[in-house]
Amino acid sequence: MQTVKLALAGFGTVGTGLARILEENEELLFKRSGMKFTITSVLVRDIEKQRDYIPGPETRFTTNPEDLTADPEVDIVVELMGGITLAREIIIKAIKAGKHVVTANKHLLAEHGIELFKLAEEYGVGLYYESSVAGGIPIVESIKESLCVNKIKGMVGILNGTANYILSEMTTNGLEFDTALQQAQDLGYAEADPTFDIEGIDAAHKLVVLIRLAYGEDYPLAKLPTEGISKVTGLDIQFAREFGYRIKLIGQVRDVCGKLEAGIFPALVKYTLLLARVGGNYNAVRVEGNAVGPAFFHGQGAGALPTGSAVLADIMALTKVGKPNNTGFYSSDLKEADILPPEHATSEYYFRFNVADEAGVMASISKVLAEHNISIAQAVQKGDISGPNVPIVFLTHKARAKDVKDAIAKIDSMPFIAEETVSFRIL
Ligand SMILES: NC(=O)c1ccc[n+]([C@@H]2O[C@H](COP(=O)([O-])OP(=O)(O)OC[C@H]3O[C@@H](n4cnc5c(N)ncnc54)[C@H](OP(=O)(O)O)[C@@H]3O)[C@@H](O)[C@H]2O)c1
Fold it and tell me: Which domains does the chain have, with CATH numbers?
């Protein structure tokens, strides 16, 4: 019986999950692959740390990355530590030592993926990353293999469970943003520094990875329009509900006549769509291929066992392949995508103006919108007895992002505007 020797860089949430599945499903893994998997070494920051789970005596804990990358016995290096400096160094060393690599690190792949894929191709090794996008959902393999004959018209997804949890709590339990965030932190869904989750940065990392898989092109992270959920208020959630929508943090890419239009943004999603029903800390991705039509994937986007399951699937796949399929394309030399300038993107919009309660305001706003080719589909004005200002909400027909930006800038300079206007796209 062949034994596959694994070296783990990182033994936190995901590393521990992986080790638990290896132990619990050992018999199944053998039945499926005819192989035995052992963890020979584990790189951690602190060897003395008390751990909930310790693998068997064959596993050696170390603080020296060389114990993983320079060990000729190791077949696959599994990077589960996060960060982009040491993780990158370890992966490069592993590839150069001719070892396959599995990583869950979307941040690293978004920033340095192009370099790492080229290197892996040069050395003829696998660099697999199913767990880096949407945790347990098999979206990477599905795009790379099962949907590979399709031209991808577009993808839209909920790629960050923490942001989705916060928005779900605001919607279902009427919490304000800060309270919902605190709750997410108390439950361990959000980090002490939640910036990556709530400002859309984590979702942006994942979308960059998905775009490469779907189009074989690189959409540089720095060029991806990225907006988080920190400006979403309970009032907007409430208005959205009244119009039949839920607010979700969306990652989207579309092929618009050969150019890619992409971004991360909060959007109103019609409550009848499956995406609107993705609750709590779940993730979902809808992929539309020209042959297959729409395909919808839903599941747990994080957590020890769901993510460990995806990591182990990559390990199993790498023990079977001849030529590794890292990017899903024949060449791993991915060129920069032809990007549709974000200001040319079109969408329907939700606007909430907070205005002084006086005559003529609605007409003034409507006039500016018309001057910028923005036509109104629905409008609602609510009296607010608690103060001198009132919210006015407009839903629009399709409008260009540049026209929207210009119109709002003009409206926000008008004397009756009490606070900055809120605008979200409608899916
Ligand atoms: N958590 C999830 O559900 C999830 C889902 C999808 C993807 N991911 C990705 O998976 C990766 C790991 O996430 P995680 O949640 O498992 O992280 P984690 O719980 O914070 O664990 C990180 C592990 O890496 C070790 N480590 C960190 N920096 C190190 C350094 N400089 N030198 C040596 N060891 C170091 C830590 O050592 P100590 O144990 O000694 O502290 C710990 O064992 C990240 O890239 C993350 O984005 C996570």
Answer: 2-128+307-334 (3.40.50.720), 149-299 (3.30.360.10), 343-426 (3.30.70.260)
